[in-house]
Amino acid sequence: MLIPYIPEDAPFTGDQRAWLSGFLAGLHSKLAMPTAGGGLADAVTTAPAVPLQILYGSQTGNAEALAQDAADLARTHGMDPHVASLDVIDMNALSAVRRLLVVTSTYGEGEMPDNAQLFWDAVAADSAPRLEGLYFSVMALGDTSYDGYCKAGKDIDARLEALGATRTADRLDCDVEYEDAAATWLESTVPAIAAVDGGTATDAAPKVAAKPAKAPTKRSPWNRKNPYRASVLANRVLSGPESSKEVRHYAFSLGDSGLAYEAGDGLGVKPINNPELVDALIGRLRAAPDTTVTVKGSEQRFDELLTHSYEIGVPSMDLVEFIAERSGDDELAHVLATGDREALDAWTWGKDVLDVLALDDKLALDPTELLELLRPLQHRVYSISSSPLAHEGTVHLTVASVRYRSAERDRGGVCSTFLADRVSEGESAGVFLSANKSFRLPADDDAPVVMVGPGTGIAPFRAFLHERRARSASGRNWLFFGDQHRAEDFIYEDELDGLSRDGVLSRLDLAFSRDQAEKIYVQNRMRESGKELYGWLEEGGYFYVCGDATRMAKDVDSALHEVIAEHGGRSADQAEDYVAELKRSKRYLRDVY
User: Model pTM greater than 0.85?
Assistant: First the structure.
C-alpha cells in the first residue's frame, strides 16, 4: 500500500488540505508500526523527504565546506539537502524554494564572492520576485580586520527579508575563528528550518522521494587547527639577483598524510612568528619568557603563545583602539574618529604590535592583558603550483617573500619570511589542504583554456599546464604572463619553453612592464590580441585569472569586456551579458587575493 503526499495543485481548501495531511500522516504512522512476521508494514514506502536548498558563496572553500557540514546534519534530521553555489539558481527557481540555508564569505573589502555575484545582482534588482513563501537562515563568514566585515552575508540576509521571506534563525556573523560558533549555530538552525510546515514536504518545487542516507562528507584529519607536518623537499629562489622581488619555489612531501589535492586548490600554511619580534615584545613588557599565562583553561608559557598562537606581525583593531585611548596620540585618534578605512589602512601599513605599543612607552601591560588584545595567529593560503598527476606525492607553492625596512627595523611577511628564512630543505612546516572547487580545469579536455597570471599569479596555471599534459588533453592553452623585467622576473621560463616545445602551451604572451619606456601589462596584451581572444571564447574557451584583486584583476576584467564589445560587435550592456553568461557557465573563473 502506498501513502501519498498531497500535490501543491490538488483542488482542496486550506482546511481540507490540513485535515487530509493529518489523516494521511496518522495512517502512515499506524501502518509503519512493526508487526510480527512483517506484513503490511513491509509494503509501506517512505514519505517524500523534506527538501532543503543550501547555497554557498565561497572564495577559498570555507563556506563551501560549511555548506557540506550543514547538508550532513540535515540528513540526520530526515531532510533531503541540495548543495550548490549561489550563482546556479535563478529567481524563478528561488521563488519555488520553501527552505533555504545560505552560507557565504565576504571577499575583499565587503564584496560578494565570485560565485555569489550573479545571485546578488538578480536578487537585488527591482525586478526580483516576492518571496513570501520562503523560509531562510544565513551564516556569514568574514574577518574583522577588514572593512565590510561579513557584508555579503548581511546584504543577502537583509534583502531576502525585504522580499518577504521569513527568517527562521538570526544571522550568524563569523570571524576567522569560526568553527565552534558555526557548529553551534547549525545544531539549532537546521532543526528549526526542518520544522517549517511541521517537517512535511509541502514545497512548491518538485518533490523528491526519500533516499538512503548518504554517509557524512569525509574530512581530512589535517586542518588549520591540526596541520600536517610536511617535509620541505625544495626551497629555492626563482627570481634573479637584481630583481626587486624575491620569489621562491617550495616543494613539500605529502608523505603518509593522505592529503589529495586537485589543480586549482590552495595550500594552507601555519606560520611561526619571527623569534626576534617575540623577544622584543617580551622585553617591551619586561616579562620573563617563561611567564605562565592561562588561556582557555590551560596554563602556557608566554613566549610559546607569542611564537605559535597570536598575530604579532599585524596589529588588531582592539589593540589599535586601546592604544589610541591610552596614549592620546593625536594622529591615531583623528584617523579613528573619521572612520576613514583607507586612512586607517595607511596608518597601520607596515606596523606590527611592537610599533603600536611604542606610541606609549610608559604604558604597562602584563602578558594576559596584551594577549586579550591580540588576534589568533592565522594560516595563509597559497595557490598550489603543481599537479598531482605530474608531481605525485608532493605539493608545490610559488611565493613572493615580503620584505621591507621601517623605523630602523627589518620587517617581513609573517608567513612568507617564515618559509623563506626558517624552513630549510629537510625541515618541516604545518600544512593542510584548502580545496577550491570553484577554480577547476574544464572536464572537457578538448576545450580551449586562456590563463592570465602575472607574477606569482602564474602558480595555478603552472599546475594547469602540467595537469593538461599529464591528461593528454588536446585543448589549446594560452597563457598571459608578465612582471617587471624579463631578465630578472621571468620565473619558470625554462619550464614554459619546454611546455611550448611540447605543444602543451599553444601560445604565450608576455608583458614585462619596465623593459620599455611605456609600461605594458597583461591587459594591454589582451587588447592587442583581442580578435584571437574573442575567437577562443566563441569556440567554448575557458577564461581564468589569478593574482592581485585590487588592480590587476579589475583591469583584466575591463579589458575582457572591451575585447568582447569590440570584436563581438556588442554594446557595453551586451558585453556585460556575455561576461555574465561566461560566469554562469563556469567559463570565467578567478583566484584573486
Answer: yes
